[in-house]
Amino acid sequence: MASLQKIRNHGALLIAIVGLAMLAFILGDFLNSGSSFFNRSRENVGVIEGQKVHYTEYEAAKEQLTEVYKIESGRSDFDEDTYSQIRNQVWNMFVMDYTLRAQAEKIGMDITPDELTELCVGENVHQILRGRRPFMDENGQFSRETVKQLISAINEGSDDAEQNANLKQAKTYWLYWEKAVRISYMQEKYTALLQHLLKANSLEAQFAFNNRQHGVSAEYVMQPYFTVGDSLVKVKDSDVKKLYAQHKEQYKQTPNRAIKYIAFDIVPSEDDFKDAQDLMNSLQEEFKTAEDVSLVVNTNSDIMYDGRDYSEENVPAQFKDFAFGKGAKAGDCTDILFENNTYAMARIMKTGYSMPDSVELKAIVEDGEDQELGWFKASDLPKNIAEPALKGKRGEKFTVAMGMGEQTYEIMDIGEPTPKVKLAILAREVTPSSKTYSTIYNNAKQFVVNNKNAEALEAAANEEGLNVVPQFNLTATTDKVGQLKASRPIVRWAFEAKEGAVSDVFECGQQFVVAALVEVNDGDYRPLEAVRAELTYEATNNAKAEYIKKQLKGVESLEAAAEIMGQQVQSVERVSLADNRFGNAGMEPAVIGKTLALSENELSEPIQGNMGVFVVKAGAANDLAEEINVEAEKAQLAGRYAYLPYQAMQLVEDNAEVTDNRANFQ
Known about the structure:
The chain is built from 22 helices and 19 strands. It is an alpha+beta fold. It has 4 domains: 2-196 and 656-665, no CATH class; 215-251 and 529-621, no CATH class; 256-267 and 434-521, Chitinase A, domain 3 (Roll); 271-429, no CATH class. Helix 3 crosses helix 4, helix 3 crosses helix 8 (161-197) and helix 8 packs across helix 22.
């Protein structure tokens, strides 16, 4: 059972570790069960490549991933953002799993049980498992024996209720990583196959070599578009519409909404501050003189008194000089201090003693391998462990209650003693009272009543000096609006309301929010008006190009072109088809191609480029005299092709037939 202990003891791993294997997540046993449930489409979270994803499968997958997060992080109090991350990762892994399976099935590719066994406990264990701390030995090395013990314990089960619960959690953890290995290796096999297919041949090698060998020098003059005033050209609406039609595929979209919202902060009123201060004043004398200070503090304070030992490192900064100053003695009290919306005062209960700040512990495991846990500070340990650990001596053992059982620890080493002090702290943070809460809510509600549409709301907000915040591209599955907490209900409202509508009041953490729906985009493509500005810019540059070309009509020399343009003649030492840039002019592929098509000393027609209009005069050929090394050329091309299999895998997912109904369940 030592491997189970490792999972518990190494809980404090970063959540980021889980992210490293998210691309390897699949859902497992749940995917093939409950076929009868699929008869009702309204219970499907989505459909991916013809495979229905039932709500129960989706929820089971979220629970599985949540358990992995708990084990790897040692926490269970996840915030809203973490749960949102879990939901999105689960869905993304459904998409990845089904699309990859569909591709693998077409070519007859799979992972055999023997392959999976080798990847998990064989001589060539997959790197995903090698990086898991609970599967390592005391030297920090991956241990196949640890994994085998864990699998054996899971399969055997236990009659003990607590151990059985631990085994259930361990099984969830193991199955996750086993499946992570399977899907990751499937990806590796698929991309390896593509890499094998995407190899450079001799013809490609010769072509790339020739492109690099042939080059020419050139002189040119270029007039940037920005030197031509917008008033000198005319852009018609038909020009913009034509560009929209040409670029339409770039504007594919998921149905989305745009809103504007106003937030009313839920903050304490002046009366709330006065009430908190009056309460502290009324408690001050009792706090200074009470024999049972814990009763006074624990009844009235936001910081409970538990007899903790403060050091200079962890004592609240505002009490550091008081607690550790010269002449500090038991019974001393501070005045009432105010900082960060909190009134506080402190009393020294004990001083003039020293204790270690840290301890190194080992967990003693019956009938198993003892586990070295490492160093802990007092603040890292529960009080029932911290007290005997920090008061003990090196080599001593102590036993504490753990749930329904007990756990024995050995003190491996202990830090040097440092000065300590026991402080009782009575602190009251000023928070909004129910009266203040109601007042702020009523103000927000009245704002809704007085402003029935988006235009009226924005005008009223501007008049009253309220900040109107825009939020664009909200999709049906967006989890929250900007940085607003608990704001998923606003997204649901936006997809149910009509354009121009104003919402009711939403409570989002410490804010009341009123939103207006300003834009509804349900088409497959972004509408023309949404991209008109960028298309108008492009159309304007096209018109300027024609204007410049007209000015250059009939020009017979670079010097004449330079005089008309008001620009200087520049030179390019060498340009070839292997180049991405044209001299100092930047990325200009059209100019490069047309320059190489010119004969020596030939003057080009005006060329429309990315940044302006060019006139080029080709110089002498500037060819290289290299001998081709076909294998070297192939190797160079292979490096350029290396990313293509991964890009292909991404394209497979991007082009998958996916229906996402998660918004109906969030």
